[in-house]
Automatic annotation (TrEMBL):
Molecular function terms, GO-annotated: phosphatase activity
NCBIfam families with a match to the protein in the record: HAD-SF-IIA
Database matches in SUPFAM superfamilies: HAD-like (SSF56784)
Coiled coil: none
Signal peptide positions on this chain: none
An annotated GO cellular component: cytoplasm
Name used for this protein in its record: Haloacid Dehalogenase Superfamily Class (Subfamily) IIA
Sequence ranges assigned to domain GCN5-related N-acetyltransferase-like in this UniProt record: 281-326
Organism (species): Actinomadura meyerae
PANTHER family with a match to the protein in the record: 4-NITROPHENYLPHOSPHATASE-RELATED (PTHR19288), D-GLYCEROL 3-PHOSPHATE PHOSPHATASE (PTHR19288:SF95)
Pfam families (UniProt xref): GNAT_like, Hydrolase_6, Hydrolase_like
Length: 333
């Protein structure tokens, strides 16, 4: 756990924000998100909206953000499709044909990088790029597999096995769809989206960030992606991650900061201090007591969670969930 004596909106020049589960859920705004981001901007922090979703164009994402109360321009949006297109442009000659297994977001990104999107394997395209699209057909997947079998470079926009299912269970994501071509060809894709480095590098390049802060709700994409990119991260609990999952995360999925929501950008973050085998933050003290962790004190319960995280993360090996449940119950988060 890190600490900051200044609000994070002042300590970091650019916030690289995940979208679903952080700014909105589906098409519903996350409470306090719009107001917090407006205040962060007013404090001088620049915002970039970074998404693994390759099906929407930056214009469509910006329109949705504006709809939920966060004014945005297409230039504020960084997509895994853009990262995939740059990755391909760095490996292929200008004007190369790339078979698109996906939607308009991928096609626009390829055009922007001087590559030629195509729909069939007949011309032996140099590469295949795949991104999630709700109307992806068997025929398109088959063309992609055919091109990969003939030697085309295989790139995936992201490896997310699932996507949010609205009010229902999660639905298959692009990572699940990538397995179709991999199973048919035996070829593993090069992945551009979170948690791999290309999307983080694309975000830093587009924003010119000198000290970026990755903000997300998922340990396996946002937080691990920040780790892979050498950046600090803020985990918010408005999406898929529960505090217990954060406390039991392995080192490469442990965030620098914790906050209930995007109001965490607007406040300082006290750094937990280790003294005499205990971890203290604010008015709380956490310690390991035999096979279990305890937390005592009063004040902001999120300071208690920070103290507890500091104690739980003292070792690289994650503690078992049952060792932490009693302490979490005491915090009433």
């Amino acid at each position: 756990m890190k600490g900051s004596d200044r609000p994070l909106s002042e300590a970091y020049d650019v916030a690289l924000l995940d979208l679903d589960g952080v700014v909105y859920v589906g098409r519903r705004p996350v409470p306090a998100a719009a107001d917090s981001l407006a205040k962060a901007r007013a404090a001088g922090q620049r915002l970039a909206f970074v998404t693994n979703n390759a099906s929407r164009t930056p214009s469509a994402v910006a329109a949705l953000l504006t709809e939920v109360g966060v004014p945005a321009e297409p230039s504020d949006v960084v997509t895994s499709a853009q990262a995939a297109a740059r990755l391909l442009a760095e490996r292929l000659p200008a004007g190369s044909e790339v078979l698109v297994v996906g939607g308009m977001g991928l096609r626009q990104a390829l055009y922007a990088q001087g590559l030629r999107p195509v729909s069939t394997a007949a011309g032996r395209p140099a590469a295949v790029v795949q991104g999630y699209h709700p109307d992806l057909s068997y025929g398109t997947l088959a063309e992609g597999a055919r091109a990969v079998s003939m030697g085309a470079l295989f790139v995936g926009s992201n490896g997310d096995l699932t996507i949010p299912g609205g009010d229902g269970p999660p639905q298959p994501g692009n990572g699940a769809l990538l397995r179709v071509i991999t199973a048919a060809t035996g070829v593993e894709p090069v992945v551009s989206g979170k948690p791999e480095r290309p999307l983080h590098q694309e975000s830093v390049l587009r924003t010119g960030a000198r000290r970026p802060l990755v903000v997300g709700d998922r340990l396996d994409t946002d937080i691990e992606g920040a780790w892979n990119g050498g950046a600090d991260s803020l985990l918010v609990f408005t999406g898929v991650t529960h505090p217990l999952q954060a406390l039991t995360a392995p080192p490469h999925r442990r965030p620098s900061y914790l906050a209930p929501d995007l109001t965490g950008l607007l406040v300082p973050h006290p750094e937990p201090v280790r003294e005499d085998g205990a971890h203290r933050c604010g008015g709380w003290t956490a310690r390991r007591d035999g096979d279990a962790f305890t937390v005592t004190g009063s004040g902001d319960p999120w300071d208690g969670l920070r103290a507890l995280a500091s104690a739980a993360w003292e070792d690289d090996a994650p503690p078992p969930p049952e060792a932490l449940t009693g302490a979490l119950d005491a915090l009433r988060l």
